[in-house]
Write a structure and sequence with these properties.
By secondary structure, the protein is α+β, with helices and mostly antiparallel strands. Helices cover 31% and strands 31% of the residues. A nine-stranded mixed beta sheet has the order 7-8-6-5-4-3-2-1-9, sandwiched between helices. Helix 2 packs across helix 3. The structure holds coenzyme A.
Length: 218
């Protein structure tokens, strides 16, 4: 088998998380182009805004360019003490969205934060839950996280439902300037103890050993 030289140099390209029909991997540039078009086709109705920065308002072709620059930026700024792993999500092989997990000073803090989106056609089928479970399994079972944090605006019931059904606890409320309107975000936290307290869907993790140093989890 031909050696994947890029994945040897940058082992995060060799990381694979699988949970039922869902697979997560670092997107290559062709994946980014497809994800940019998927996002441009719509993540939420125009009257809603689930994100802290209103990045989904930009119009094509600037939208797609900003999208791929954001992903390239995460890669180029990567450091073991501050990283954002922005993973492509496939369901039954099709690209459906992005699941991010990020950390600052993970070696010391052992806290991972998550964020995600799916194309509108792919929402409400349980994918959001499985992709969150996949990165939680990475963080808790393979990297030794002690807590995972998340958050969602109070008017985002789907995101809040995913967190709550996985056992996150409320962790305070903060106020954002959302497109000029003061809007409350529910902060959420899941401890390692709460993660281990109940049975979880099985997650297969491939390639993590070679990524440990990059993730500050050697
Ligand atoms: C948030 C998101 C990733 C969740 O993914 P998903 O595949 O839709 O989520 P799931 O199907 O796994 O679960 C959604 C849950 O929300 C619940 N839900 C959805 N809409 C709801 C509503 N209006 N009121 C109450 N619950 C609702 C569903 O019933 C489901 O819970 P259940 O499995 O207990 O029935 C996805 O909806 C999305 O991309 N939304 C737009 C972007 C976004 O909000 N990103 C997160 C920013 S914090």
């Amino acid at each position: 088998m031909a050696m994947d030289r890029l994945a040897q140099i940058w082992p995060l390209f060799g990381l694979r998380l699988r949970c039922g029909p869902v697979e997560l991997h670092l997107p290559r540039d062709d994946d980014l182009a497809a994800l940019a078009d998927l996002a441009a086709a719509g993540i939420h109705p125009p009257e809603q805004m689930p994100f802290y920065a209103a990045w989904t308002r930009e119009q094509p072709p600037g939208f797609q360019r900003s999208f791929i620059r954001h992903h390239w930026g995460s890669r180029s700024r990567w450091a073991p003490d501050q990283w954002s792993l922005d993973l492509a999500v496939r369901r039954d092989g099709d690209l459906v969205g992005v699941q991010s997990v990020e950390a600052r000073a993970f070696a010391v803090r052992r806290v991972a934060d998550t964020g995600s989106w799916l194309g509108m056609a792919h929402q409400g089928r349980g994918t959001g839950t499985l992709m969150r479970v996949a990165v939680l399994a990475l963080a808790f079972d393979h990297l030794g996280a002690r807590a995972a944090t998340s958050g969602a605006f109070l008017d985002n019931p789907a995101s809040l439902a995913v967190s709550r059904k996985l056992g996150y606890r409320d962790n305070g409320v903060i106020v954002h300037d959302r497109e000029g309107v003061a809007t409350r975000e529910q902060l959420l936290v899941l401890s390692a103890e709460d993660w281990r307290a109940v049975a979880r869907p099985a997650v297969e993790v491939e390639g993590v050993e070679d990524c440990r140093a990059l993730l500050g989890a050697a």
